[in-house]
Amino acid sequence: xxxxxxxxxxxxxxxxxxxxxxxxxxxxxxxxxxDRAGGLKLSQALSxxxxxxxxxxxxxxxxxxxxxxxxxxxSRDASALCVVENPADVDLIELxxxxxxxxxxxxxxxxxxxxxxxxxxxxxxLFQLIRSSGVEEVILATSTSVEGDAxxxxxxxQLVNDDIKVxxxxxxxxxxxxxxxxxxxxxxxxxxLRQTFPAD
Amino acid sequence: xxxxxxxxxxxxxxxxxxxxxxxxxxxxxxxxxxDRAGGLKLSQALSxxxxxxxxxxxxxxxxxxxxxxxxxxxSRDASALCVVENPADVDLIELxxxxxxxxxxxxxxxxxxxxxxxxxxxxxxLFQLIRSSGVEEVILATSTSVEGDAxxxxxxxQLVNDDIKVxxxxxxxxxxxxxxxxxxxxxxxxxxLRQTFPAD
Lengths: 200, 200
Fold this sequence. Notes:
Two copies of one chain form a homodimer.
Chain A: H1 4-13, H2 21-34, H3 36-52, E1 54-55, E2 62-63, E3 80-84, H4 87-96, E4 102-105, H5 118-121, H6 123-132, E5 137-140, H7 146-158, E6 165-168, H8 184-192, E7 195-196
Parallel strand pairs in A: 3-4, 3-5, 5-6
Antiparallel strand pairs in A: 1-2, 6-7
Helix pairs in contact in A: 1-2, 2-3, 4-8
């Protein structure tokens, strides 16, 4: 490239998932030729998000406050806690299910080969939250992948001596599936038909 | 989303071509979870590129100087001028062909339906450059799409009364193809076998 700034931009764009050298070049040229204002706004949104977004002290979800909007909403039902893998799962459930309880976001799932164990997911914080805040039902909404199932079993196992109902979204989520790939109506049904976990 | 900064980032990412709402969300979450340093570097590269990259005063290619590296290189052969559609085409030719002349980058091609006429491509500047700087051969390396051909015909038509050889890359580029999709070896051959245009 004739411009070293352009080279740098193309290289930096490759931090984005699924963006290879050719798409990075297309993206950079598109912004320079047709949408510099949009490029500048993206730059600002990126730096603000990277610098100011942290994890909710209660549920680990992304927020720029100490507590996220769900955790700081006193009208939510504190007796139900839904455990999900990702922030995107919270959005999907909020949009689709009418669920009024709270969440805990693991920011991943157990995956020993990738070095992700219970500590990396913050499960100690999860158990503290469950035991200290009057949670009566823990809804395990991790994915139905092998790792998502293992994560659900691990959590339910640790709660077996607590007087807490542990359920898992069962009906409607295809085996091996990510929550993200499930239609809203299916998710709603999966919520209303959730089953005791492990099965009786 | 629980974070308005995150919402803003997801929305802003959609200025990138081919990025829809779902990929934008994946990109944002990936950066927040796994690569904040990369996100900040991307932010900086974006703002620098958008603010500092302009068009070379001679050939229109992107550069952060007044003249691009090719135009400011006095060892290049000023008697040959290769006309391309995009900055990426310059890179491809530089890498593949051994061409030692100069370039003019149209930053597009004639496309009346999109409102892109000769003025938008800077052809007046092109003709001035050709007539004022001792150019002996103009190599039309626009794409072989309908619009790329039309652009080549338009330029050659305007030069018909000048004592200038006008050639067009002919051999090896598939009909309807973009220069970008052509292998380096094909491009090299196309260069060495370039033909007088329009054909005798």
